[in-house]
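Incident review: delayed structure delivery

Summary: a single-chain prediction request sat in the queue longer than the usual turnaround. Root cause was a stuck worker, restarted by the on-call engineer. No data loss occurred. The affected request and its eventual output are reproduced below so the record is complete for anyone auditing the incident later.

Affected input:
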Amino acid sequence: MTKFSHNCPQFRNVCVIGGGFGGLYTALKLSKLVDPRTTRIYLIDPKNRFMFLPLLYELAAGLAAIDEAAPLYENLLAGSSIKYIQGAATRIDTANKLCFISSDEDSASISYDFLVIAVGSRPRLEIIPGAREHCTPFYSLSDALVLRQRLQEIPKDRPYHIVILGGSYSGVELAMNLFKSLRHNNVTITIIDRHDHILPMSAEFNFKNAQSALTAARIAIQCNCTVSNVSSHGIQLVSSSGESEFLESDMTIFTAGTGQSQLVQSLSLQKHPPGRLLVKSTLQSIDDDCIFAIGDCCSIQDDPLPSNAQVAMQQADTLAFNLFTQLHSETSSEELDPFQYLSLGEMISLGPDNASITSLGGLVTIRGLLAALGRRLLYAARMPTYYQAAWSIAMFVASSLRRLISKMTGHDSSCNR
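Output delivered after worker restart:
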């Protein structure tokens, strides 16, 4: 086993596990604050690409290029002092401050002074019998690419039914982007949700626009029901009154229910009842001030937060500053910055030419094409690096021009034929 360490006592190691929004943005921000001659930052992730999750829908539907939605870590970290390791963190030895990593080619351990756990969450396919065998999950880059391939294989000579389990943001945005991509095929889409209505946590303006768009797209919605079983032919539904119904499905997509990774589950640190790591307002573990957590894998004491990229990106600012402070002083955790979430609003994609935006507590509301343009430009500006932001804007402008030319010539190039 290879051991990554440095014998110089003045050298400090920060180990960041997980290259999503929380982990990557923390590493990048911290790298701009510390001296690389005295501090090493390791970023560990089993994938070779960062997934900009808000564009996951467009990528799956063939409406965004992979280099725009999922740039390589190698490119994002070029010119920084961050050391990227492609591998999976399998175990944490908190007593000896060691992180154990496994990859296809090797295994290793890294000694750390401070550890950041940013592994996000995982789909809980096990909560529904048959889901693991017969559902296509939709949570990650690999999921999006698998779905994209399956969509290209849809037969065009017969009706085809897609069922999406989960009517939250992921389910609704995916449904609308699939509709825009597949609308010339004989495809029908149904959303299943256990709540009284879809988008239970959404702002009213966005909910109404989404409901209107789904109705116009003739996407069926079945609420107040649970899925008791998934098979290769469809799903078994149980209504709130106990009635059972079988719904045929050619493809069942899972966007409902997330849980914690095996790594988080294995840690003997205090957790919130759903299994998230319990952290202080400074994002430090309740039990270990040298371990920080960020994003969907943690819960702040007495401060429940939504699970979205906006929270993780804001936490990254606080976490990078607190790490820098800890690295350069013996400051107690009481003197570190507490994280304070500021909701900037929400955006929901309803296809390449339609979106809905609510901001400033509902004082600013935009919908339609203008909202779609604003959403893509805003996400481009929030890319991890200036180069990636410029690249994303260029790709967005090019794709917009192609769609405009296609509409003017009567040929819609956004559709998979």
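Verification: The chain has twelve helices and 24 strands.
Action items: add queue-age alerting; document worker restart procedure.
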